[in-house]
Predict the structure.
Amino acid sequence: MLLAAGCAVQGQQPVAQPSPVKAPKTEITLAFGGDVHFEERTRKLLDHPETAFGEIAGLLSQADLAFVNLETAVTERGTPEPKAFLFRAPASAYMAVQKAGVDVVSLANNHALDYGREGLADTIEAARAAGVPALGAGLAGDAYRPWVKDIDGTRIAVVAVTHVNELWERWRATDDRPGLAMLRDTARAIEAVREAHQLADVVVAWTHWGPEYEECPTDELKALAASLIDAGADLIVGGHQHLLLGAGWQGKAYVAYGMGNFLWWRNDAASNETGVLWATIRDKRLAEVELKPAYIDRVTGQPAPANPEVAQGILDRQARLRECAGLSDTPTA
């Protein structure tokens, strides 16, 4: 008697079919956007957090891991700090980044403590409640601890630090006082990158640094980048300057000195040019990095992929700035 495929003889148990084996990924992709605020024109985007990032969410969602710098306190409490610009957002900010395909945010910037340590505690707790890893903040042991993610056997570690001078001593994380991971505490920051190098195959140093509105990195930033690379960083991603800065290879490491604004609160930005830094990992090594250009909408503040003409202009300017950053367009030994 012939049996139909998949049928069992009466009285016998059916034979379990083996589950298909999932092939390991041959490429792992990381996507980095720049600085994100929810104030003024972008605050109302949180009325519908599922669409707050607009069209760029389609690109971010394609990456295995996507990152943005969340440059705001997420709190409704706290006391304003003595500084000119103060940013805060409701807890729905975390839903907005999640719905945009963002997996991880950095709090290591010059606004996460705008409403003091009470506000910082709320910011960290809201991230925890939403299930969003928020790096670079808390007690020093947490703030400097590398975040590590294993994707199909490739381990990626990220260390988030800020180097902005404003209130840095007041805001620095210590062993008994919550704050931010500071690159100005250079020895501790470098040690965190060394630790990441021991834990992972690919190490990202995520930095908030440098003077605002200057197209070329200072000698101080170049020296810090070299120290981070020596400690084991494969990819350095910077922000804070409100401009896209030069990006390229320094030996076998890639440095993007400044990613510019991303989802941006005011229509007086020095530049609306932005983009998503797209890094590809193969065989547990950083293999390729490119900028996918975007442009910030002047009404909504949302970034969107740039049309071909605008995109080429953005890429041309970034290539021009590579020279003053002292970087190469290809990796070198």
In short: The chain has one domain: 28-325. The first strand starts at residue 28 and ends at 36. The chain has eight helices and 18 strands. Residues 28-325 form a domain with the Purple Acid Phosphatase; chain A, domain 2 fold (CATH 3.60.21.10).
